[in-house]
Amino acid sequence: MPEETDLFHIIHTTRAMRRLKPDPVPDALIRRILDAGIAAANGSNRQTWRFLVIKDQKIKKQIQIFYKRAFEEVVGPRYFASEPPPGVTRERYMRQHAAVAYLTDHFHEAPVWIVACLDEGTAQPSRMSGASIYPAVQNMLLAARALGLGTTLTTRHLLHEEEAEAALGLPAGVHSYAILPIGYPMGRFGPVSRGPLEDIVYEDEWGKPYSGLQS
Ligand SMILES: Cc1cc2nc3c(=O)[nH]c(=O)nc-3n(C[C@H](O)[C@H](O)[C@H](O)COP(=O)(O)O)c2cc1C
Q1: d(CA 116, CA 113)
Q2: Whose CA is nearest to atom 23 of ligand 1?
Q3: What is the enclosing helix (H) or strand (E) of 116?
Q4: What distance in angstroms lies between residue 100's CA and the mean position of ligand 1's atoms?
Q5: DSSP tally for the chain: helices H, then strands E
Q6: Torsion-angle region of residue 202: left (phi > 0), alpha (psi -120 to 50) or beta?
Q7: Average pLDDT for residues 134-139, to the nearest whole number?
Q8: Structural domains of the chain sorted by starting position, each given as residue range(s) with its CATH number in brackets
Q9: Whole-angstrom distance, CA of residue 58 vs CA of residue 122
Q10: Using 50, 70 and 90 to split pLDDT, how confident is the model at 80?
Q11: Is 0.85 surpassed by the pTM of this model?
Q12: How far is CA 137 from the centre of its chain?
């Protein structure tokens, strides 16, 4: 199988791509991403997912204001006070900070957004409901990567959920779970950095190393 279409290669190189070109993305590619999304697992196959494709600059800008406010109030200070996560060098973490700040300022300039939603009626959003939309979101991240498009799973607008969802025009009972800003990436795709499996996988008993990693 050629490397570019090998599933494991795609998985290991689907990084958060936060620097995007403003060039338009063909609808045919957005359709392929959405099609990959709805191939995902979802509870009882009820398919209560709904997707809002946003190209309108005015709408994106309204949400970016809340996205940036949440950065200034919560996310930015937290980033600067935190240590690099497992498997990530300080230098790479600093580059991530810079990219996060960049996306904060340019969120609305991504040519297309896909807002992943669930139509939940009177039920409250929960871990159970999230489990019926995030597989679709991950499929869309992988599909975008396979098509050479950059995106990032973002949820920060939820720190100002009511205002952001009003700006998105979501009807009662519909909640947003992620915004994927999509565009052609300025940089290159590359491998993700994660800590070793040995530190996080146990066998039979919490804390006992999984013997299967030794082979
Ligand atoms: C639940 C969730 C919410 C996220 N929200 C944001 C966000 O609002 N803005 C952002 O820039 N990245 C966001 N990310 C992306 C993460 O920062 C990213 O997955 C992580 O740093 C790993 O990056 P990498 O896959 O490029 O290694 C989010 C990821 C997840 C899973």
Answers
A1: 9
A2: 16
A3: strand 112-119
A4: 9
A5: 8, 5
A6: beta
A7: 98
A8: 3-213 (3.40.109.10)
A9: 30
A10: confident
A11: yes
A12: 7
